[in-house]
Amino acid sequence: MQLPCSPLVSTDQLSELLGNDNLRIIDASWYLPNSERNALSEFNDQHIAGATFFAIDKIADKETDLPHMAASAEGFAQAVGEMGISEKHNIVIYDVRGLFSAARVWWNFSIMGAKNVFVLDGGLTKWIADGYQVTDKMTNNKQEIFLAKENYKWIYSAKDILQLISDGFANGEQIVDMRPNERFLGKVAEPREGLISGHIPKSKSFPFSELVKDGRLISQEELKTLFQQKNIDLSKPIISTCGSGVTAPILNLALTTLGIDNLSLYDGSWAQWGEGNKYPVT
Fold first, then answer.
1. What angle do CA 106, 135, 33 make, to 5 degrees?
2. 9, 242, 253, 271: which is the annotated catalytic residue?
3. In the chain, which ranges are continuous DSSP H helix?
4. Per-residue pLDDT averaged across 89-113, rounded?
């Protein structure tokens, strides 16, 4: 079958691709530390045939205490190469919840130069609901060489955000916070210990849950309406952020379905910004 232009692939499309030598399927399931669920254990119990597990917390920057920051190009290439994945493969990513952490791994592969990388629309939940089979049998792909070409323009650091604030967002940059609104407003405590509450000055609240319905990204028309309601200018640069960089890429994925490419992600997110009163907070 012909690959879709959208970064989303349907369960039917993935079913047609099964058995293709150039296909690689990734289970990117991940849970918050206080969820009492184990994504790897659940993967071992059931997953789409041929899938391998992407450990978000392990395939990450080893030089920082911040959670699951993007790995170096060298570290990423080694890890996914050992999983049997090259940048030339057709890569389909899913998670158990439908659309939660899969977008993060889609973003990881995208910034490292993979061209044909997709998210399974509806994830494992829809795959099973549509009558497709799962298995507990493991796949051992032979090791591949992944030639990583990191796209740094997609990544913002705390220093970059401070510079935007200092410059008064001179180029119309928009920071969009995907955490629940009560966390954005500082009305509830952060799930990670030691973080203060609030948000980055001048950032906009856009809870990721508003982008997802029944585990699937909402329609393009609904997306356009929401962006208009949130006063987000799609012609200006957009920087997504969240609690620790896992759900923020859902916004990047949604924008990509609309053909928007002037977008980035603040990888440290609130796990960095909210720690130790280092940065300005509203």
1. 50
2. 242
3. 11-17, 39-45, 73-82, 102-111, 123-129, 158-166, 181-184, 220-229, 249-257, 269-273
4. 97
The percentage of the chain sitting over the pLDDT mark of 70, rounded to a whole number, equals 98
Question: Which is nearest to 237 in space by CA: 177, 172, 178?
Answer: 172
Q: What average pLDDT is seen over the chain?
A: 94
Which domains are seen in the chain, by residue range? 8-150 (3.40.250.10), 153-273 (3.40.250.10)
242 among known catalytic residues: yes
Closest listed residue to residue 177, CA positions, set 106, 65, 266: 266
Give the separation between CA 88 and CA 157, rounded to whole angstroms: 29
Is the pTM higher than 0.90? Answer: yes
- Render 104-131 in DSSP notation, one character per residue: HHHHHHHHTT-SSEEEETTHHHHHHHTT
d(CA 104, CA 100): 8
Structure tokens at 92: 């389909």
Which pLDDT does position 2 carry in this prediction?
47
How many angstroms separate the Cα of 232 from the Cα of each of 168, 183, 198, 203, 271? 17, 20, 20, 11, 24
Asked whether the CA dihedral 261, 262, 268, 273 is positive or negative, the reply is negative
> pLDDT digits over 53-91, tens only?
999 999 999 899 999 999 999 999 999 999 999 999 999
